[in-house]
Amino acid sequence: MIKRLYFCLEPFKSQKIIYIFIMKRLLIRLFHKIVSFINFNVGKKVRPYHLLYNQLQKHRVGDMTTTLNKQIDLYLLNSNKKQNFIFVEIGSYLGESLELWGDLLEKRLKDNFQIISIDPYKNYVSETDKNWQPNKSRASTKMSKVMDKVYIYFVHNISLKKWKDKHTHMRMSSKNALKVFENRGLKIDFCYIDGSHYYDNFKFDIENYNKILKSIDEYKGIICGDDYEFSYEELLKKFEKEKLNKILTDNKTTDCLIYKDFIFHPGITLAISETKLKIEKFESGFFTGIK
């Protein structure tokens, strides 16, 4: 009798666990909203975890800072110090990586630098990602729905930095921003690509922004980015070549694919496999590229 009663109550027990889990998630989300609202209004840094804050993964920070430090060393050794070190970031979202870059630039170069961030802050998700499937990440869909609020928080956090006057934001696509750079003949020292991960957009950024890198005698600018988890050659160890080619071709407008034991960004993998740039890939997914 007791055993039969246990099985009768088991479905209700499962429902209760699910209910508690959902309520816990909602309460945590509400807590983060309230904390963000308070910090924003009292002039403190905002960390809106409910808007997918905390995307600056710790395992990449070391590769990022080491790469920028090396470029700054080259700049100080070889370049004309009268020319500011020009740093460009494509795709800023809540500004986590930009704060990292900016703090390091201020520490090393004092006032001799200029930061330019590029992000249109608009709904950018593709129709492919809208039609979500279990093996596709939902992150891009969630992020693109809250861009106006994200932009406000981005401006707020950057306004609290000491180097805020060294920063310019271009709220436009990277294609339009490139036209501005070209029209003004602007050359850059360091370009970090973390914008759209769709194939066409990412390929445009990596193939065109390297053209406006500084190249003066022994000194050359550098282009880099992240979310390069697997190269084409590495994925051939996981898929047959024909299947891999089909996956990459069919997912040019997919942000991120999820498999049982790994994830990767198909647009980035495909675009980098086609570039003529010399790419150095780090275990963290960070990469650098030079002509």
Task: Describe the protein.
The protein is of the alpha/beta class and 291 residues long. It folds into two domains: 1-44; 56-290, Rossmann fold. The protein contains eleven helices and eleven strands. It has a seven-stranded mixed beta sheet, with helices on both faces. A two-stranded antiparallel sheet has the order 5-6. Helix 2 packs parallel to helix 3 and helix 8 (199-208) crosses helix 11. The longest helix is centred in the N-terminal third of the chain and has 40 residues, at 2-41. It is globular. 33% of the residues are buried. The model has no long low-confidence stretch (mean pLDDT 90).
Features:
291 residues, Rossmann fold, seven-stranded mixed β-sheet, alpha/beta, 11 strands, two-stranded antiparallel ribbon
How many strands? 11
Question: Globular, elongated, flat, extended or rod-shaped: what is the shape?
Answer: globular
Helix content: 40-55%
Q: What is the third-level CATH name, the topology of the largest domain?
A: Rossmann fold
Reported CATH architecture of the largest domain: 3-Layer(aba) Sandwich
Strand content: 5-15%
Low-confidence stretches: none
Topology at a glance:
Layout (H helix, E strand, L loop, with lengths): L1 H40 L16 H21 L6 E6 L5 H14 L3 E6 L8 H4 L8 H6 L2 H13 L7 E4 L3 H11 L5 E4 L5 H10 L6 E2 L2 E2 L1 E4 L6 H4 L5 H10 L6 E2 L4 E2 L1 H9 L3 E4 L5 E4 L1
Helix pairs in contact: 2-3, 8-11
Short structural summary:
With 291 residues, the chain is α/β, with parallel strands linked by helices. Helix content is 49%, strand content 14%.
